[in-house]
Design brief:
The structure is a homodimer of 169-residue chains. Chain A is mainly alpha-helical and 169 residues long. Chain A has 8 helices and 3 strands. In chain A, strands 1-3-2 form a 3-stranded antiparallel sheet. In chain A, a hairpin with a 7-residue loop joins strand 2 and strand 3. In chain A, helix 2 packs antiparallel against helix 6 and helix 3 crosses helix 6. Chains A and B meet through helix 1, helix 2, helix 3, helix 6 and helix 7 of A and helix 1, helix 2, helix 3, helix 6 and helix 7 of B. Chain A binds a DNA duplex (30 and 30 nucleotides) through helix 5.
Chain lengths: 169, 169
DNA sequence: GATTTTATGTCAGCCTTGTTGACTTTCCAA
DNA sequence: TTGGAAAGTCAACAAGGCTGACATAAAATC
């Protein structure tokens, strides 16, 4: 098992990663993700929504006019799962679903004013923590943080991520 | 590492964090966490277990002889939730529950051989990805990665994490 | 010794969010 | 005109959270 990679000469500190070091990283991801979702979760608890609603709202905000299919591929859930979430958001007037002009089968999704307000509350809360963490760790660390996360993604998701990243930058 | 380094661009890059920059970090966490759990999930899919079983197995392996209460505080779930998971692991002979010698109310949890075998399979899979990501990003980045994650945790969880970190190192 | 507190386990029931499968409607395009 | 893609809907189910209530054993305290 493992760690049999004591590379042949040179760059030892670069290449030799003990199981212990890796395990720390794994546990760090576990605990950090809990913090990452904690603040939006608290807001959503009061309303009738959950994390699934947050994700939908986030990416509709991020990609205004996106189709349901596109959202499905970003979120990686089934259309039935997403539909349940979207239905409640549409019913509650947070999301608007417009029939496509070019292709009328498609529905283009937008946040309403009300939806945008909730989105702002959620992402503000999440950004407060993120900003504090970035500042505490420093710019060098932030760059490393993003590099490792990016390298950890599945190739498909990395492509999705990079498309979003460029689009927004 | 001295991350207090104001950086080549001056203080601006340290203190001024745009919403865009923070949003990229948020999305990176979202996509990376999917990758992070993907490999163990694939293994667990074949068996009758899920992510909750994985977490229990991980921390029992990590803290052999831990009590149920201690595990509860690490995992942050209710005892009913954990009990459902533990019961199936004990029934299937992956986990052993020993009555405490000093305090007979306590149950001390250990992995059996069978449990340790599954643990190894799961963590090997997860480490493969982690190792690849670490190598791709480089040691500098890894340090930053861990710093930001640590800063992102809730204080309580950070304490838990650090206790584990020391214990294992 | 009696009482209270703690640690654990368990039953029942609920919610969210994921899944599959089947079916319909709309409508673009070959 | 017909095949198939996009979308919506219904039904059923599972994992894994949650709460509340209750049982038991053992420790701690009075």
């Amino acid at each position: 098992m493992s760690t049999g990679n004591a590379g042949p000469g040179g760059g030892e500190s670069l290449l030799f990663l003990t199981d212990e070091q890796l395990r720390k990283g794994i546990e760090a991801m576990f605990f950090a993700y809990r913090g990452f979702t904690a603040d939006p979760d608290r807001i959503l608890d009061g309303l009738d929504y959950g994390r699934a609603h947050h994700r939908a709202i986030h990416f509709i905000h991020r990609c205004p006019g996106t189709t349901v299919n596109n959202l499905l591929s970003i979120l990686g859930v089934t259309k039935q799962s997403l539909n349940r979430v979207l239905r409640s958001l549409i019913e509650d007037g947070l999301v608007e679903s417009r029939v496509g002009r070019v292709d009328k089968r498609e529905r283009h999704l937008h946040l309403t004013e009300k939806g945008a307000t909730l989105e702002r509350a959620l992402s503000d809360a999440q950004r407060v923590r993120m900003r504090a963490a970035y500042r505490a760790a420093g710019p060098q660390a932030v760059q490393g943080f993003r590099q490792v996360l990016e390298a950890m993604m599945d190739p498909d998701l990395r492509r999705q991520y990079q498309t979003l990243k460029e689009g927004g930058a």
